[in-house]
Structures are given as C-alpha cells and as structure tokens.
Amino acid sequence: MAHVVIIGGGFAGVWSAAGAALARADADLRITLISPHEHLVLRPRLYEPNPDLAKVALSRILQPIGVEHARASVSAIDTGARAVVAGGAKINYDRLVLAAGSELIRPSRLPGADRLFDIDTLDGALRLTDHLRDREQFSVVVVGAGFVGLEAATELAGSGRVLLVDESPVIGAQLGSGPRAVIEAALDQLGVARRLSTTVTEVGDGYAILSDGSRVEADAVVWSAGMKASALARHISGRLDHLGRVPVDQWLRALPEVFAAGDTAAAAFDTEHTVMQACQHATPMGKVAGYNAAADLLGKPLREFTPGPYVTCLDLGNAGAVFTRDWDRKVMASGSDGKEIKLRINQAIHPPVDNAETILAAADRVYIELPFFPRP
Ligand SMILES: Cc1cc2nc3c(=O)[nH]c(=O)nc-3n(C[C@H](O)[C@H](O)[C@H](O)COP(=O)(O)OP(=O)(O)OC[C@H]3O[C@@H](n4cnc5c(N)ncnc54)[C@H](O)[C@@H]3O)c2cc1C
C-alpha cells in the first residue's frame, strides 16, 4: 500500500495528517505521522501562566481519522531511497511531508548559557513557571523584543519586575512601526524597563551582565532572540532561505516526492513576502501539503496554496493586546478589544478532537475568516 509519511506533530504536521486523510477518502493509503511527543503543543499559548494547558493529545486527532503515530525523532532523510530514519529504524515513504517546525536560536558562546530560560517549548515554559512559582517578587530579564519576547515580558510584568533587552535600537523591530506606539504605551503602563541597542553578555546566579557593562538583578533570564527552521530542512534542499526553510512551489512541493509545510517551508505569500513562521500560516499550509501528498499518489488534482489576509495579535498582558492587519501591520484593535480577539484566537487554534467528520471538515476549510476579526 502506498505510504504518506509526515515528519512533525505541530500545527503543520497535524493538519497535514488531516489533509492527507481528507484526500484519501475511501482509497487504500497508509498515513503515518512521526513525532517524538504524544501532544500537539500550542506554542502560541506558551507565554500564558499555565503552559500545561497549551497541548492537545495527538491520539485524539490522529486515531479518529486513521493516521498512525510513530513516536520517534527523525535523524535523517534519504530522498534518493525515499526513506527516513526514525528512532534508528528505516521508514519508507511514497510521499513525504516535512513539517518539523522551528526552534529557538540559542547563543553558542554566552557564559552561563545553561542558566537561560525560554518559552519556545512546553518543557521550557514549564521550567520557567516552576522556577518563578511562589516567589513573592522576582526580577526577570527578557532578551529579544520581538513577538515572543514581548508576550513573555508583558505577561511576567503582571507578577514581577521585568527588564526587556534588545540589540535593536527599537522595540519590535520585526513588527514594523505600525503597532509600536501601542506596544510602547503598554510597556510603560506595565512598568517594563527597556535597554535597547544592548544584549546580555553573561548570566550568573541571580544576575545578568549587559553589553553596556552593567550588572542587573535577574532571578531568570528568558532568551527569545529568534527562531530557525528544523535542521532536517537541509536533508531536502541545499538552497535554504535566511530562516533555514526549504523553498516550495504553490502546491507546497519541494521535490517531486516531498512537500513541506509550516515553519520549515518558505512558501510565497505574495510577490513581495514569504509566509511567516506563524501558526496562522502553518495551519493552512499543513492542510494543503498533506492533501497534495495524498492526492498526488491517488491521481487527484492538487490544491494551490493561496494565503488568506495576514494578521497578527500580540498579547500585552494586563495592558490588553494589539491586533493588526496586512504587512504594514495597521492597528485594528488594542487594549481590551485586542485582548478579546487574542483570547478567541487562543481558543480557535485548538484543533477539533475525537470526531473524524469534524476534523476532516476543518481540514477542508483551508482559510478561516474568523468572524471576530475587525475588517479594514
Ligand atoms: C511563545 C510563542 C508564541 C507564538 N505566538 C504566535 C502567534 O501569536 N501567532 C502565530 O501565528 N504564531 C505564533 N508562534 C509561532 C507558532 O507557534 C509556530 O509558527 C508554529 O508552531 C509552527 O508550527 P509547525 O507545525 O510548523 O512547527 P512546530 O510547532 O515547531 O512543530 C514541529 C513539530 O515537529 C516535531 N519535530 C521536530 N523535529 C523533529 C524530528 N527530527 N523528528 C520528528 N519530529 C520532529 C516537534 O516535536 C513538533 O511536534 C509563537 C511561537 C512561540 C514559541
């Protein structure tokens, strides 16, 4: 029987599995998802005070739709032999979907790097909340004032003192100027101190040294200075983009037998932009890549990836949230209105579970215009 193999159990992998099951319908086709974890981790929720809620059992999604779960980590892909090595065993495929996601870029030569915390993975976020739990007052340094660092800093400011450090001269450099005034006002409101054009050069027991030579109190230093695609991308292509992602065409195909989705895939968003490493893109990409992997084997027409509108919603802790639309990130809602949208998004990203019909129907709806998004 022909075999679709999916590497990764994040948004892209799970939705690839559902997309492949949708295209399979009643045909004979084996679908296997390989991931070392038993959960889909909802990474966008890892800044929340109880990160353990940010997960969904893979079995509740995969079992109803007849997808096998191989609990292992892939160490190699041999595209010539159409096989992957997972947990030491060889698994052959007819079509492969690479959806192994991304990971935090960690500093390689920082003294005290082993003391850093992060909210990149469920284990990382749990370690941070355990470390700070039950402290009356704490001081935290957050390194990186991008999407993740801002959410970490503003959430932690609800219960401790926060210093936000970034080597850029502006807050939220990657977010552009659109939402900056709202973000800065929120940081002021929450008392988050900032040190820009600066980084951390050493981490010690209860302190951090900054590149301006100052020593600051730090019960924890949270590193959130950028993400890079899984190193498996290099097994598929020698032409990776600046985020380490595999180039794919409009059907999300990287090689004749290999598709890629989510944070490992550089798909065109429009003529100027590639997709973001974001679950709002990983989800529809997964639905399309998985569908196409199965459809290609079954002789069905493939689906094109044509992204919906680009939005962002950044949580700002007790100062609400800021919701933006399009690539200039025009602010559409902020404060409590923005927070209302963020809370709804954080629920909406939970995939349906336990019911094949609902899961497959969701896989068929590639782009969801959420009714609570304000229109321009
Ligand atoms: C704190 C935080 C906040 C975020 N906020 C937002 C937000 O507000 N909005 C938004 O759109 N995005 C947000 N993101 C980004 C979003 O989480 C990612 O873009 C999304 O998770 C990408 O999904 P993915 O499936 O491609 O990859 P991942 O979520 O990285 O999943 C990859 C999967 O592959 C598995 N895997 C990795 N290597 C292997 C291997 N060798 N073998 C087998 N399996 C492997 C992993 O275990 C995991 O299951 C946030 C991320 C973080 C960390």
Question: Which keywords apply here?
Answer:
globular; 2 domains; alpha/beta; 6-stranded mixed sheet; 4-stranded parallel sheet; FAD/NAD(P)-binding domain; single chain; 25 strands; oxidoreductase; 8 helices; binds flavin-adenine dinucleotide; 376 residues
Descriptive account of the structure:
- With 376 residues, this protein is α/β, with parallel strands linked by helices.
- The chain has 2 domains: 3-103 and 227-309, FAD/NAD(P)-binding domain (3-Layer(bba) Sandwich); 106-223, FAD/NAD(P)-binding domain (3-Layer(bba) Sandwich).
- The chain contains 8 helices and 25 strands.
- It is globular.
- The N and C termini lie far apart (49 Å).
- Bound molecules: flavin-adenine dinucleotide.
- Flavin-adenine dinucleotide binds next to helix 1, helix 4 and helix 6.
Summarize the structure.
By secondary structure, the protein is of the alpha/beta class.
